[in-house]
Every structure is written in structure tokens, then in C-alpha cells.
Hints:
The chain is mostly helical and 88 residues long. Helices cover 44% and strands 9% of the residues.
Amino acid sequence: MNLIDRDELELDTEWSDYYDGFTSYSQSQINGAVEVQAIPLDKVKKAREEIRKLDDINPDYPMDRTIHVSRNEVLEILDKLIESEENE
């Protein structure tokens, strides 16, 4: 799947008297649009769950505090997610 930023396109085909303007984008604009990098939501949710589970995995942190994980542990999970997307 290729994702593009629709805001970068300009309506230029299919004139509508009702809207008094063009109502769709030409195929040439769509084909020439710059691709947007995105990570699928299901993979982001999976990473979020891994981050939430860090508290359960690391016995060195007391369970009665609000924040229990280190920044490096969170960054490792996010780096793994980003790397998996770059390698696809």
C-alpha cells in the first residue's frame, strides 16, 4: 500500500456545477505524489502493549508507582518497530 498526503493534491478533474468546481484528482497527480511514511496502527498498538508490559517483566521496579520503566527500555521497543518498517 502506498500512502500519499491528499492535502498536497489539487482538485483538477470532473467539474461539478453543483459544487461549482472540480471534484476529484487526476491520475497523474496521484501517480506523481510523494509517498508518506507511516507505521500501521496495529504495529503501534503492539509496541504500546510491549511498553505497558515492561512493568510486569522488570521485578526491580515496585508495582505501586506510576512510572516504572526506563527510557532506554521504551526506546528499544520503538527502535525495533521503526527498524521493522524500514526493512519492509
